Every structure is written in C-alpha cells, then in structure tokens.
Amino acid sequence: MKHISQPHPILDGVEKVSGRLDYLDDMQIGGMLHTKLVFSTVPHGRILHLETEAARQVAGVAYIFHHGNTPANTYNSTVWYEDQDEPEDERMFPMTVRHVGDRVAAVVAETPEAARKAAALIKVTYEELPAFLTCHSALDHDDRPRQEGGMHLAEELRFDYGRTDADFAQAELVVTSTITTPRTHHCALENHACVAMPESDGRILILSPCQSIFSVQMVTARALGVPAAQIRVIKTAIGGSFGGKAEPVLDPLCAHFAHVLQRPVGITLDRTETFTATRTRSGATGRIRTAVSRDGRILARDTDVRIDIGAYQTGGGFLPGAMSQRLCRLYDVPSQRYRGRAVLTNTVPSGAYRGYGSPQIHAISEINIDHTARALGMDPVAFRLKNLIEPGACDPLTGIHVGNARIRNCVEQGAECFDWQARRVPSDPSARFRRGVGMACATHINGCYPDFHEATTARLSLRPDGRLDLTCALHDLGCGSNTVLAQIIAEVLDVVPTDIVFSEVDSDICSYDLGTRASRMTYIVGEAVRRTTEKLKSRLLEIASLALNHAAVDVILEGGMFRTSGDSTQAISLAELFRWADSHGTALEAIESYRATANPGSYAAHFAEVEVDVLTGSVKVLDYLAVHDLGRALNRRLVEGQIQGGVQMGIGYALLEDISIDPATGAMKGDRFSRYHLVNAPQMPAVRTLLVERGEPTGPYGAKAVGEIATIPPAPAIVNAVSHALKRELTKLPITQDRIVASMR
After folding, report:
1. How far apart are CA 687 and CA 641, in angstroms?
2. Does domain 31-129+192-268 have CATH number 3.40.50.300?
3. Which residue, of 79, 181, 296, 507, is most buried by count of CB atoms within 10 Å of its CB?
4. Spatial distance between the Cα atoms of 386 and 307, rounded to a whole number of angstroms
5. The whole model's pTM is what?
6. 283-446+599-744 sits in which CATH class?
7. pLDDT in tens, 484-495
8. Which residues contact 574 (CB under 8 A, 6 or more apart)?
9. Residue range 522-558, pLDDT digits in tens
C-alpha cells in the first residue's frame, strides 16, 4: 500500500508549530463584547441577594446576567441527539449553587478589562446549605430531598450472571481489594472558550472548539428553549480536549447573551476557572472480590463501585454502565456480580475524560489481579494468561463479540520483549533505592454500537483544481484524525494526502454525527470515508471512460491520472475530468452513510520498571513498554504519538494528579498548574511501543482505536511495579511520596 500504514506527517503540523493556526481566542471579531463570569465561593447555598449596582456603573458594561433575567430551563449538557432523554438538573445560572465554581452571574462589557473590573464589584449573599463533598457523606444523607441540600443517587446499575454465590462458596481463595482513584483534570493547553453572534436570518451562530457540533446545537437549544434549527454551530481549531470539551459548558450562555444583546459575545476562561468551573474525571472507590481456584483460574468476581460525579448529572450518569462493560471484555470470568453507583456531591461536575470510566475500573481490577496473583504465589503474567479471553469471545453482558481480540499476544510478546522474568527478581529489602516491575492489561470500545445512533455520513467531491473535498462532522481534537482520513482517501484514489481538503465542520452543511467520543473516529468515521471514497472512485471511472471513449473496465486510476490499459498516450487528470464532467452537466461526488454493525475491543498490555526511594517516597520510571492490539496502524507515527501521550497521562494519574477538594471549604486545592502537578518531559521514561497488527475485519483496512486505550493501563502498571518494589499493596491513587513513606512505616 502507498499511504496506509505510512508515517505521513500530521497535515496541519507546520501551522501549529509555527503559530500560524488560529484558535478561537486568536480570532479578531469586529464589535465583539467580552464576558467575565462570577462563580460561587460556597459549595452549596441559596442565593438570597445579588448586589450589582456598583458593577453597572463601570464604563463599558453592557449587561449583567444572572438567574433572575435568564431562562430557567433545565438541561443536561451530555445530550448528543434529538430525542435523547436524560435527567435535566443544570441551568445557565441556578438560584441554588451546588459547588464552588458554580455559575452565579456574568458581566458582558465592551472590553475584557471592564468586564473583569465590574465582576469583581458584584456582591453575593448566600443562605449556606449543608454540603456533601464525598460519596460516603452524600449516600448517608440520601433520604433528604436534593433541593433542600441533600444529595442523592444519580444512577445505579447492577448485573449478576453465572452462579456467583455458588462459585464463591467453592473457591479455594478469595482476595478482596479496595482501590481509590482520584479526581483529575484534562489540562488541555487551550482553556475553555466560546463565541456566539446573531445571524441575519434571526439564528444564533456559535463558534466553538468542541467535540460535537450537534451536541452543542441540541444542548444550547434546550437551554434557550428554542428549536435546534435556530442554532448554528461551527467547530473551530481545538487546542486539546481529552474529553473536557465534549460537553457544552459555555455555549448556552454565550448564545443567550448574543441573542439578547444582538452583538457578537465571547467568553474565555482563565486556567483556574477552567479547572473549577468545567469538568473533571470522576473519582471512584471500588471494592472488588475475586474468587479463584488454587491452580489460578478465576471462578467469580464481585465488584462494588461508588463514583463521585460531582454537582450535576452531566455525563456522569453513564459511568456505571461504561465501567461494567470493561469488566466483561478482558478476562474469561464464568460468574460475575457488579454494582455501580454514580453519586452526586457538592463538587465540580464530572464528565468525559480520555477513556471514560476505563482508567478507574482498570485501576481497581488490575491492581486486584496483582493482589490475587501474589496471594496465589503466581507470577502476574502467568495468572493473566490463564484467564484472558480468546479472539471472538462474546461479551456476556451485551452479547456482542469482541472481535479479533489479541490481548494474549500483547501479554506474551510484551513479557518477552520486556524481559519480564529476569527483571522480576526482588530488590534488597534493606536498600534505600528499590526496583520493581509491574504490568497491567486493558480493553476499550470502538464506538457506541449498539447504543445510540452509531452512524455517520460522508460526502466526497472532486474540485475544479483536481483536489478532493471531504465534508463530514469530523472533530479532529489535534491528534491527526484528519490526516488518517486523508490517507484513507489517498489510498483508494491513488492521490497524495495533501490533495484532500476538509470542509468546515458546520451544522448547516454536515450530516448528523455523534462527534469525537467513544474511540469511534478511525473505526466508524474512517470506515464511512473509505466506503464513500470507493463509491466516488466507481463514479470517476465511469465518467472517465466516457471522456476517454473506452469501456470502464479498461480505465485505471493511477497517480491522479486516468489511463486506458495498454495505451499510455490516452490519459486525463482529475482536474481535466472535472472540466469535462462540468461541461456535460455531471457532478462528481459521492455520499455514503455508514451504520456500525459491531463493536470490537481494542486491547493493550503495559509493562513498567520503577525505582523507589523509600526515604523520600519519590518514584522514577526507568523503562516502559506499551504493547497494543489495534488491528492495524494506519499511521504508525500518529499511533506512537497517541501512546506516548497516553502513558504520560497515566503516569501522572498513578503518581501525582489529584484536584483534591478541601474538606473544610469545598474548594479545589489543585486549581492551577502551580498546585496541580503533571509529569513533565524530564520525568518521562523512554516509552517503547510494540504493535500487534492482526487486523479487525470490520474496521477500515483492519484498524481499531488506540487514542483512549493508551492512557488506561499505565496507572495500574506503575502502582503494581511500586508495590512489587516495596513488597506492599498500595491501593490509594495517586501514590504520592507521602503515601509511599507512610506505607513503609
């Protein structure tokens, strides 16, 4: 193949590194008003009075919005499609704030300086209400009505298959672990921003660096109480998201302000506001019991997970279901019981974050797997190999086949490449610096099938200059999705990827699509684009045969030229074909809708070696190997980039990252980069990658997803390595220096 599996550079890479690519906050929009939001300083309280007179006197202030003069419509910011019915408990400006950072008011002014000055003058009087900052305290008061200050259970999911009680009763060993994972933030380079403006036809146009234009359209329409057709959305270049921009946070406000004032209005959050007033990854606590036979066969598992989804339903309500699915696609467990509870607390709301539930549930299950192997006296690799699923296995929860699942190959090849057995030798228990190795397995989905509307439509047209124009709701988050789609088109038509032009992602011209979520971009949109391109190729060959006056079977497309077989003198370029077709009133385009029929699993096994200083508790990752079953790498360079970034996130999840809510005030402690610690380049090990490419029949050219799964195994692999080095069982993430030192005491 000429383009598939080739390391083509990212199409907009030069624009990005040179600073020529305009992000939303770089755009100069004439006559735009600027917004400064006022946020709650209490975790739970009823607003009794807003003193805004002094703010109104500031020169340049156009309007001050609050709960008294904005729509009271409730909505759920995770709605994706028209008839989706989700619990609605969020509004633009609530009368009762539910977390520190909840929205109280907004000053819209001629300049950012005027907006900031006026916002600082607004005084808020609250009747403070009881605040519940943890799942435990919230569930203890679940009998109280929520509007009076009590939290309640947002969502609960249970399943039980097999003979769980009987299998536990006959087990020779039962190992119980309780694992806690932290609340973490996306930390995208681009803060949250939005611009909205009135259009001449009475509609509102939203410019948004979002993951789904149609989600923005529908959520905004519900918040404003208008038909979705009244809202038009254009996606702008996005400076990173990782799920943080999957939900419209600012868009409903911005659209309403622009509608009322009939002027363009912009909102840009600063770094602390992005931390405290948008979304986070949910924290979770899971108690997992694993029943095994003495020879290492898993007989049954019982998992109970409490998930802190914060102050509003948002996307947190789906987490119990998402986590349950991951438990059933990795190991062959005959009997399994699960209870997942999403709990509302008076903390910043949670939402999508790379992996959506998978990092939490894999940390819980994979750390327990190591605990179980230790209790059995088995090597962790051998224990996993005894229980991992085989290709073609059926998910017992959904009945869906997991596809060509090659997790066993990942573990076997990874253990050999990492030299697992030799490195597993214990460190000197009296040494200050101790080494250990750990590993973890993971699985993730490829799209939303069979749930929701897992389909997409692509249109591919030939342009007058011979290039090709792709129109679809493609939400490239900065990782190179557009490059991969260009490679697919180039492969089918034998052109170069740089000859592909991407139309603006605009709700007026794009057919409906769920957006970039659930690891569906390459697997779903890529297959839609491949089929569309094949359809266009057939059309082009048909028209070229007429232009060349030859039978279609004798015409070939090669290097952007149509030739007749056996006669190299007869040829016509794509640009010439466009002119010929145009003169004959013939359009050269293809439209294809593709609906998914499967949801295979992507798989990975990660291996880590660490060195732990038992005196200070510091951890250094010495070596790292990431092995991935992704069907086929359509662009190895981009795949390796995804894995590198995923490992960096996962190491931070294991060792450092935690927004940490102050139990006294409800305020976020890690609300800026000086207080929220990330793994920086000097701390990163050399991350080696090993790809298992056995193909997935339902994916484009055999490809499956890698973007989300890359960040799932690192945390449990690191924790397991540290536990091995210290001969301890660490269970509370992140395993910070103080926690490591405390464990040694």
Report:
1. 10
2. no
3. 181
4. 30
5. 0.96
6. alpha beta
7. 999 999 999 999
8. 462, 466, 467, 495, 540, 560, 561, 562
9. 999 999 999 999 999 999 999 999 999 999 899 999 9
